[in-house]
């Protein structure tokens, strides 16, 4: 592992079923293969372990996102690469989290995981979208509850048009442009040579 790695927060936002968790897991594997210290904060897991008891009112949703943002800030300012994968439907709370993290001198990179409702409904094996569209479920984000699309995200991936590999490559390219991965690779090179390993890219 890299002892002097600089942390950052990669914030995935998008509707349920858009592919946030799958992309986060694939990217986690990619970054860890390069020796990075990475943690994923998945929205469903956070609700189970950190936000148990919260409902789905706007206030409760905001509290949940603030908690994810707080943990992201603590980890990333201490040198951890953080991948947050939560719907985070409201622009104002996403902006609040961004400010808090950037005030620590840490990069906040918003990734909009975009996918049309009709495709999400087709993917949804539980049929929740179809029930929500039929008015059988209230407060369903993107149908009967608002989802505010990012106005100027650093990255947009379109999971109805791109494979997981293509979307991850797009994200990795932006991280390299920001010199996050370049820095990691240079720091790791002496260790790789010393151990006689071939670096996985």
| Helix proportion | 40-55%
Radius of gyration: 18 Å
What's the CATH class label? Alpha Beta
- Order of helices and strands, N to C? EHEHHEHEHHEHH
Keywords, separated by commas or semicolons:
5-stranded parallel sheet, disordered C terminus, alpha/beta, single chain, Rossmann fold, 201 residues, globular
Describe the structure.
With 201 residues, the protein is of the alpha/beta class. It has one domain: Rossmann fold (3-Layer(aba) Sandwich), CATH 3.40.50.300. It is 48% helix and 14% strand. It contains eight helices and five strands, in the order βαβααβαβααβαα. A five-stranded parallel β-sheet has the order 2-3-1-4-5. α1 packs across α7 and α3 packs parallel to α4. The two termini are 16 Å apart.
In short:
With 201 residues, the protein is an alpha/beta fold. The chain has helices at residues 20-33, 43-49, 58-77, 91-102, 117-123, 128-133, 164-177, 180-195, and strands spanning 8-13, 38-42, 81-85, 107-114, 155-158. The protein contains eight helices and five strands.
Any chance you could write out the topology, listing elements then pairs?
Layout: E1 8-13, H1 20-33, E2 38-42, H2 43-49, H3 58-77, E3 81-85, H4 91-102, E4 107-114, H5 117-123, H6 128-133, E5 155-158, H7 164-177, H8 180-195
Parallel strand pairs: 1-3, 1-4, 2-3, 4-5
């Amino acid at each position: 592992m890299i002892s002097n790695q600089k942390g950052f927060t990669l914030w995935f936002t998008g509707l349920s079923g858009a592919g946030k968790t799958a992309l986060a897991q694939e990217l986690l594997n990619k970054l860890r293969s390069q020796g990075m210290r990475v943690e994923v904060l998945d929205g469903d897991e956070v609700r189970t372990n950190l936000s148990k008891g919260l409902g789905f009112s706007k206030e409760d949703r905001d509290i949940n996102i603030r908690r994810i943002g707080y943990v992201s800030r603590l980890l990333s300012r201490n040198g951890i690469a953080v991948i947050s994968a939560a719907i985070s439907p409201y622009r104002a709370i996403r902006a609040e989290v961004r400010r808090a993290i950037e005030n620590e001198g840490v990069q906040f990179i918003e990734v909009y995981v975009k996918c049309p409702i009709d495709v999400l409904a087709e993917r949804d094996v539980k049929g929740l979208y179809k029930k929500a569209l039929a008015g059988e479920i209230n407060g369903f984000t993107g149908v009967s509850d608002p989802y505010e699309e990012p106005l100027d995200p650093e990255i947009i991936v379109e999971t109805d048009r791109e494979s997981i590999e293509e979307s991850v490559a797009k994200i990795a390219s932006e991280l390299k442009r920001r010199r996050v991965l370049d820095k990691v690779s240079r720091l790791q090179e002496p260790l790789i040579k010393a151990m006689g390993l071939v670096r996985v890219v």
